[in-house]
Amino acid sequence: MLEKITNTFSDIIRTVGGKSSISEKNIEDAVEQIKMALLEADVNLRVVRRFVNSTIEEAKGEKVLRSVDPGQQFVKIVYDKIVALLGDTKKDLQLKGPDTQSVILFLGLQGSGKTTSAAKLAARLQKEGRKPLLAACDLVRPAAVEQLSLLAEKIGVPLYKEDTKDAVRVAKNAKEYARKNGFDTLIVDTAGRLQVDEDMMAEIEKIKKTVSPDELILVADSMTGQNAVDIAKAFDERLGLTGVILTKFDSDARGGAALSLKSITGKPILFIGTGEKIEDFEPFHPERIASRILGMGDIVSLVEKAQETVDIEQAEKLQKRMANNEFSLEDMLEQLQQVKKMGSMESILQMMPGMAGQIDPSAMDTSGMKSQEAIILSMTRKERANHLIIGPSRRKRIARGSGTSVAEVNKLIKQFEKTRLMMKVAKNKGMQAKLMKGLGM
Ligand SMILES: Nc1nc2c(ncn2[C@@H]2O[C@H](COP(=O)(O)OP(=O)(O)O)[C@@H](O)[C@H]2O)c(=O)[nH]1
Ligand SMILES: [Mg+2]
């Protein structure tokens, strides 16, 4: 996600951030590049103009040009502004306490990801200790109820449905059912249309009146860029949204919707959908996404993601060893095994400081992970702890033991040495370390 804009921004930031003195001309050039990057990302033109003007004004101030580290000051300004574009701080759902009912109404165009997101949110709330009930109020699209039924069953959240075409009635009865049966959160999935149309608006308006939702959430496809923002505006003007879920963030290389939505509609992005699976759903953290876009990595999300799927102790140990340059083949083995659990190499690389845009993930041989694992497993503990002792005869033995070739063993050890080196480089990039500190990371 956000590969394109991250690559462009990382380059700009690397160039300017490292400078010990900068001129007004440097600032103008950098801002011009940023402007192009934002426009290419499909950020709203008005938003870009405002961004550019205020950045130039601030960056040309005495405080920046005369400071000891103007490059970093400039990066900080850009970072703060990107955070502001994304919505400043993370916004939580405003739900009532557990002894009453809260209602969350989902709306959006067909195919935007409403049904999937409704199930993702239900699973998440259940995990947090709430008692959600899903209501199937998309009675327009054939098999929509069936789709939600299957998802509900999969995540173990009860579903309210009726055999009717009257969505308003189902919503009303679902709320009553939730109240009688002690469900504290009703999540209502509604029917979308191919475009914003009066039929859909009228139906949702009626449902809204009937269930008085605490949250009225628009689900929008981030890949549609500015279009998603226009849709949000239309829905908000008619129905009054409380927030937005941006789906398909995993496939959104540009980020235009995320960067324009708050400025244009005033509505916060609450969650992002990052894949088709139930777990591919994250609260939207403006600071973290901004760090990612600027190529400063997102260690916090990385560790959180690791904690969800990986043994926490193991993850902490690994982090520490990475920080101390003690990374060994044993750690690489652990990492290989964890990566398998954590998801794609690409999403992990994006979150590592200094790594964004440095490596082409598609060039990484993840299919070879199995044989890599086998190779390390064929090493003795001593060899894993110190790769320098693995001479030619040991390599031959390891190749035989793992069912691979000496060439493959050589390749793995080379790759390991390269990884170690990269970690050292990332760590020694003084600017990056200082920045992280400055940003409280
Ligand atoms: N890659 C990706 N696919 C998604 C995401 N959210 C939904 N989808 C897919 O988008 C398609 C439409 O989703 P659905 O929930 O049926 O949309 P609805 O018509 O708004 O209810 C389905 O194939 C989903 O699997 C996401 O965050 N990432
Ligand atoms: Mg649906």
Q: How many structural domains?
A: 3
**Quick one: CATH class of the largest domain?**
Alpha Beta
Which architecture of the largest domain does the CATH hierarchy give at level 2? Answer: 3-Layer(aba) Sandwich
Taking the alpha carbons of the first and last residues, their distance comes to 21 Å
CATH topology of the largest domain: Rossmann fold
Main sheet?
8 strands, mixed
What topology, given as strand order, has the largest sheet?
3-2-4-1-5-6-7-8
Compute the number of helices: 21
Mean pLDDT score: 86
Give the helices and strands as they follow along the chain.
Answer: HHHHHEHEHEHEHEHEHEEHHHHHHHHHH
Tell me the strand percentage band: 5-15%
Q: Could you say which structural class the secondary elements and strand pairing correspond to? A: alpha/beta
Q: Going by CATH, what is the homologous superfamily of the largest domain? A: P-loop containing nucleotide triphosphate hydrolases
Write the layout of secondary structure elements.
Blueprint: H1 3-17, H2 24-40, H3 45-59, H4 62-65, H5 70-86, E1 102-107, H6 114-127, E2 132-137, H7 144-155, E3 159-160, H8 167-180, E4 185-190, H9 198-211, E5 215-221, H10 226-239, E6 243-247, H11 256-265, E7 269-273, E8 281-283, H12 286-293, H13 299-309, H14 312-323, H15 329-342, H16 345-351, H17 369-377, H18 381-385, H19 392-402, H20 406-428, H21 430-438
Parallel strand pairs: 1-4, 1-5, 2-3, 2-4, 5-6, 6-7
Antiparallel strand pairs: 7-8
Helix pairs in contact: 1-2, 2-3, 3-5, 5-12, 6-7, 8-9, 10-11, 15-17, 17-19, 19-20
The structure holds guanosine-5'-diphosphate and magnesium ion.
